[in-house]
Automatic annotation (TrEMBL):
It comes from the Eukaryota. This is DUF7492 domain-containing protein. Residues 13-185 form the DUF7492 domain. Pfam families: DUF7492.
Amino acid sequence: MYLCLYFLVATALAHSWVERLMVIDTSGKMTGQPGYIRGTVTRLDPLFNDFQMQHLLPATNENEVSESDRMCKNSQTFGNYSTTLPALWAKPGSYIALQHQENGHVTLPENSPQKESSGMIYIYGTSNPSEDDTLRSIHRVWDCNGRGGDGRGRLLAVRPFDDGQCYQINNGNISRSRQAAYPKKKLLIHQRLLYHLL
Ligand SMILES: *[C@@H]1O[C@H](CO)[C@@H](O)[C@H](O)[C@H]1NC(C)=O
Ligand SMILES: *[C@@H]1O[C@H](CO)[C@@H](O)[C@H](O)[C@H]1NC(C)=O
């Protein structure tokens, strides 16, 4: 079944996006081929820049999200996958990981003193996405039973942006203490991942 996932970082100014999706097997390991979100531009592209992936709302200079603000970035409103950056294939009922970078929102809180924390991530799913989906018609509208709003989709999960272990390498005290507490055992895989992602 084709499932479209909407990934929403609830804090303003959090410039992170889903870099990669993986299926998690019954032992908790990531398995199989990676998948990507629609219209992904790889960081390996020499012309890559963050603006190609980030979708900042409100779209205008107003302070509030408007009725017309779209759920997805223009280049990501349809199944714009490529052969090298395909959708994730997962069986119904699978557990999946949405991998994103913390970009300092966790390890360098001093960069955003206006925020209390790195916030929560809301994950919505639908097998019937529309190019016109707006934030206001989905976020805090679709519910976990699929009965909210127009009923085309549902809230799958709400998770903290900070899983308590993530870090990017920098000299901040949080990153340094996590580097020591959660050394990447599979350094090769981690590096390959970083290579993929950075
Ligand atoms: C599809 O995605 C690619 C990024 O991989 C982007 O360059 C392209 O403009 C997108 N196509 C459309 C019609 O938005
Ligand atoms: C990092 O430093 C801040 C400010 O000194 C302190 O509040 C915090 O507990 C420290 N965190 C860690 C993980 O060491």
